[in-house]
Design brief:
about 400 residues, 11 helices
């Protein structure tokens, strides 16, 4: 039986033809690219990719199949998936199904046998743009109509996707990361009682929660819209601001809540969208990057000592460091383009980073940030001693 065909059309008028390797149908979103050589399961299930069509730059995707334990949420989150070659028959003892089977089961429209290098160069030169993938024939939906659909889709700028992607009700999280994977990196504080961390869910990844649990915290996850007063009634020893999709400036409720929380003495740690929301709560501004940062190999310089760490990224917006208020400073810089990669308050126990220290798979260099957060919590609850490596 002949392989089903698919097309991807971009807002600039480009139309590429390839093979359908996912669900039948038509889907649209912001076209972006990810440079990771591994990690497609995490990309597929990361809520930060909500509303986006992801092109993988590595030439073969799907060779180790799909394992539910590797998922960062309970379902596929992306709008569409683009590959040079999708592996139909995986080879891995942990695999429970192939990538095409997962894509079809999850309702994700996907295409391979297209020139992903050309797509990546297009997005680098022109910037992220909207695109549409369709398995309909040209007779059913002409190329010009596909391009028009891409052109009329809303821009990611101004979209609040974070308020709807996360949990709708508070819940407790208890699953911890495997100790053997992070044994030398996570805190070793002798908690008398597990400190309580409240994690605000703007689209949180499971591995963040696993690492917080492995650090010895008791965790309550609350919705993005949870008011500051309700969060403080939970008596947190620490507050975590999660990653998530969309334009950070559009998450008005979350920003308002964090503005109240930064007035307290509770230690605060943010990642990715959480970093941007913390910055906005301080009064700084964010802006849309030309094509964003998405991959597992970005160099980050820590300004306090000049150390360079390799980190995973997934974001399309950034904080303008020139707009940070007095008392808040940039702590990390992305060496690829000198964008702000982290901030810290000069007097309070509040800090955040633009990248993903929890990334799995991903470099372990930034895991010290969980130790830093644990140290801050320990100082507040009066526990002597610092986390050890």
């Amino acid at each position: 039986m002949a392989a089903a065909l698919a097309r991807i059309a971009f807002a600039d008028g480009t139309v590429l033809r390839g093979r359908s390797v996912g669900a039948a149908g038509t889907t649209g979103g912001e076209a972006v690219f990810n440079t990771g050589m591994t990690g497609y399961e995490e990309v597929l299930s990361d809520p930060s990719y909500r509303g986006q069509i992801v092109t993988m730059t590595y030439p073969e995707i799907g060779n180790y199949g799909i394992n539910p334990e590797d998922m960062e949420s309970d379902k596929a989150q992306i709008a569409g998936f683009v590959m040079r070659q999708c592996c139909d028959v995986p080879s891995n003892f942990r695999s429970v199904e192939s990538l095409p089977d997962f894509l079809r089961r999850s309702g994700i429209v996907a295409i391979d046998d297209v020139d992903t290098r050309a797509i990546t160069r297009k997005l680098r030169v022109s910037g992220a743009m909207n695109a549409v993938i369709s398995t309909l024939t040209s007779d059913e939906l002409p190329d010009a109509a596909l391009v028009e659909k891409a052109r009329t889709m809303p821009s990611m700028a101004g979209l609040d996707l974070a308020s709807d992607v996360g949990t709708k009700a508070p819940y407790a999280w208890t699953e911890a990361a495997e100790a053997k994977s992070f044994n030398s990196e996570l805190p070793r504080l002798a908690w008398k009682t597990s400190p309580h961390v409240v994690a605000i869910d703007f689209g949180i990844k499971r591995n963040i929660l696993r690492l917080l649990a492995a650090s010895g915290f008791r965790i309550t996850v609350v919705p993005a819209s949870h008011p500051a007063d309700a969060i403080m009634k939970l008596a947190p020893d620490g507050i975590f601001l999660s990653n998530g999709p969309g334009d950070p400036a559009a998450v008005v409720g979350g920003i308002a809540s964090v503005k109240r929380l930064i007035e307290t003495d509770v230690p605060l740690f943010g990642i990715c969208l959480g970093h941007q929301i913390l910055s906005l709560a301080y009064g700084a501004r964010t802006y849309k990057l030309k094509f964003g940062h998405r991959g597992a190999n970005h160099p980050i310089k820590r300004l306090r000592d000049g150390a360079v760490e390799i980190a995973s990224h997934n974001h399309g917006f950034a904080v303008d460091p020139k707009t940070l208020p007095a008392g808040v400073r940039m702590s990390h810089v992305n060496l690829n383009d000198n964008t702000c990669a982290g901030i810290e308050h000069e007097r309070k126990r509040q800090f955040s980073v633009q990248y993903h220290p929890e990334a799995g798979p991903g470099p372990a260099d930034p895991l010290y940030l969980f130790r830093q957060f644990a140290d801050h919590v320990a100082e507040r609850v009066g526990l002597a001693g610092a986390a050890s490596r």
